[in-house]
Design brief:
TIM Barrel; 9 helices; alpha+beta; eight-stranded parallel sheet; about 675 residues; Jelly Rolls
Length: about 675
């Protein structure tokens, strides 16, 4: 039997829904309610009847038994095209099956949408492994199709896929509003007027609070949200205060208690419109009959905000990556200064292949056309990253000059089919492969919203193109990250110089770093609004020449909450593992990235070499130098390394190009990550 292991085959051949309803074990269909009151129903792989909540199979599927299976058995298939269809009613679905060293790859589609690869390989056998989880869906009837592809990863010895059960979430309770806490000592949010004092106590929030008994003394709290609660010490000698919000009376605070109680809830507002508010607490100088004093204390405020998308919620601000636990399976997540994939630490090695989206019949192109996408992706280890130019001219039909995503669709589909990931660059600082003009400070300050179409090949503004391409691929796990602009610099071109002739003539205004920061906030924020699940990389070089990221400016722009990863480009230092000086070198950039809490990767690194007798390194020598660079980068805490540049054919003479016979492919494939 293809799957192996201590199993007993029950049925070999084609199993169809029309076979009827077998006797099901008691555990075949169950439901449960979690602590959060989500209702989840489990559907066994042998459930073949019913309007919804059932499976049907097409092609040569078999069943087997095992103590580790849900309800004691599962289905498996190895033949390409064999499919299992699940019809269910709910808002989310998870698939469970056995993974094993001899298992291969399948694809999953929901409601006729694009397919997502599912890999059933694991180094050791694991029953009831979670292999797929959908995003939240509209409540209703849905159809999921799992199809055997007949393919496998390089480590697998077989192509089997399995179906054991599906867990369907039929309802999800409204999430509790998130709460942020503001300490009494946060001067940016809290101000005091009158004779206030401070005290310390291990029982107080953050170890201390403010207090006063002076009538008329005020505490003013500025907050943004949809509700607020005040906490303070309550005690036998405490008194009363009044509260107003946005100038309107909102209640009375009485801090009396028969015995001292720190961090007591003393006030909660009624629901407020989500947004900025001002609360003023005013000491009355009075107390209840039981109180021996009039003291009012303030320890902290808890501010609530509606869940994004709920009624009354304000538009979300630009933020970085969502928590790893909320990222769909197959999508990269940021985990502090590292990366995660499906809950596990993740690092990557790969190539730049900037021309891979070129397809002369469907777009203007950028560089050489790559015909054998399958061959390239199959040569990599699973879940590698390839960086590709995806600027507007890669999506413009060469005849009609209208938007056409045919070439990018081809690329993303091929990557997804091989379990590979793409870093897509949406703009270029330089004129080449973009709108024909180098980008300057004026462009980053707002010019990106204007159409620059002197050649007729750029009908959309950068802003509109970014929104279009992100919206198209936001649900694809083949996207590792977006990059807003390659090598951005907010300089000013000297008079008389245009386009790429600006190189070497730029001046760097003192506001360059803030210009880039605002650009990242604005464009990155829009990308996050459209696509909250994918990461965004900065694309900066990191050397001493890029206006806005030189020296101490490097972390300023990249601290934008919309950016998830910071970058570095390494050229001209072939024999140096960590290139650059103490202010602009890679070691300095690693430290700066850690200081702002973001992962760093080397996005481009080039060393010229040749397969022939020319005056530069040989291909094996280059591979040795790159290994030393990768060793240093990963030892320093870097998360990824992308070599410049893979092409389908080798270049003549000394060149950065790597191709199919280059030892760099073995390095990238086998480097210990």
């Amino acid at each position: 039997m293809a799957r192996g292991g201590p199993r007993t085959a029950l049925l070999t051949g084609t199993l169809l829904a029309t076979l009827g309803t077998p006797a099901l074990p008691a555990a075949a269909a169950t439901s449960s309610t979690s602590a959060a009151s989500s209702v989840v129903s489990s559907i066994d792989d042998t459930t073949l009847s019913g309007t919804t909540g059932r499976f049907s199979y097409a092609g040569p599927w078999s069943t087997s038994t095992g103590a580790g299976d849900y309800a004691g058995s599962d289905h498996y298939a190895s033949t390409a095209g064999a499919s299992a269809t699940l019809t269910f009613t709910g808002v989310q679905v998870q698939l469970y099956g056995a993974t094993a060293p001899w298992h291969g790859r399948g694809s999953v589609s929901l409601d006729g949408g694009p397919s997502q690869q599912v890999d059933f390989y694991s180094a050791t056998r694991q029953d009831q492994a979670l292999v797929f989880r959908s995003q939240l869906l509209a409540s209703g009837v849905h159809t999921l199709v799992l199809t055997a592809t007949g393919s496998r990863g390089p480590a697998s010895s077989g192509t089997a896929i399995t179906m054991d059960r599906a867990d369907v979430t039929t309802s999800v309770p409204p999430p509790a509003p998130p709460v942020s806490r503001i300490d009494d000592a946060v001067s940016a949010a809290v101000t005091y007027a009158g004779a206030w004092s401070t005290s310390t106590s291990p029982s107080a929030f953050e170890g201390g609070d403010h207090y006063t008994s002076a009538a008329g003394a005020t505490m003013t709290l500025h907050f943004s949200g949809s509700g607020v609660s005040l906490y303070s010490a309550a005690a036998p000698w405490h008194g009363r205060a009044t509260v107003s919000i946005d100038g309107f009376a909102s209640g009375t605070v009485d801090e009396y208690a028969a015995a001292r109680q720190d961090q007591s809830l003393v006030y909660s507002s009624a629901p407020l419109a989500d947004g900025a508010h001002t609360l003023v607490e005013t000491v009355t100088g009075t107390g209840s009959r039981a109180s021996s004093g009039t003291v009012i204390a303030f320890d902290r405020a808890d501010v609530t905000t509606p869940v994004a998308g709920s009624p009354g919620a304000a538009a979300p601000p630009a933020t970085g990556a969502p928590p790893p636990s909320s990222v769909p399976i197959g999508f990269l997540a940021r985990c502090g200064t590292g990366l995660c994939l499906d809950g596990k630490p993740y690092r990557f090695a790969g190539f730049n292949a900037y021309s891979m989206a070129t397809q002369w019949s469907t777009n203007i192109g950028c560089g050489s056309q790559v015909d054998d996408l399958d061959g390239y992706f199959n040569s990599l280890r699973p879940a590698s990253v390839t960086r590709v130019a995806a600027q507007q001219q890669q999506a413009i039909d060469p005849v009609t000059h209208l938007l056409s995503f045919a070439a990018l669709d081809r690329l993303v589909t091929a990557a997804a089919g091989h379990g590979q990931k793409l870093s897509l660059t949406l703009g270029n600082e330089w004129a080449g492969c973009d709108d024909g003009a180098q980008k300057d400070q004026a462009w980053f300050a707002g010019g990106f919203r204007q159409v620059r179409n002197s050649t007729g090949f750029y009908p959309l503004s950068y802003w509109d193109y970014v929104r279009a391409v992100v919206s198209r691929y936001k649900n694809s796990p083949a996207i590792a990250m977006w990059e807003l602009v390659n090598e951005p610099k907010a300089g000013t071109c000297s008079t008389g110089f245009v386009g790429d002739t600006c190189t070497g003539t730029y001046t760097c205004p003192t506001s360059a770093a803030q210009t880039l920061r605002t650009f990242f906030d604005t464009v990155g924020g829009e990308v996050k609004r459209l696509d909250p699940n994918h990461l965004i990389a900065s694309g900066v070089v990191g050397d001493q020449w890029q206006c806005g990221t030189i020296g101490a400016d490097y972390p300023v722009a990249q601290a934008s909450p919309a950016l998830d990863l910071v970058t570095y480009h390494d050229y001209g230092a072939d024999g140096t593992a960590l290139p650059g000086d103490s202010a602009n070198g890679l070691a300095a950039r690693i430290s700066q990235a850690a200081a702002i809490g973001k992962p760093l990767f080397v996005e481009e690194a080039g060393i010229e070499a040749t397969a022939g007798p020319a005056g530069c390194d040989s291909l094996p020598q280059r591979a040795v130098q790159f290994r030393a660079k990768m060793d240093a980068l990963f030892a320093g805490g870097g998360v990824g390394y992308l070599i410049w540049n893979w092409m389908p054919t080798a270049a003549a003479g000394c060149d950065h190009t790597a191709t199919t016979s280059d030892p760099l492919l073995d390095l990238v494939r086998s480097y210990p990550l």
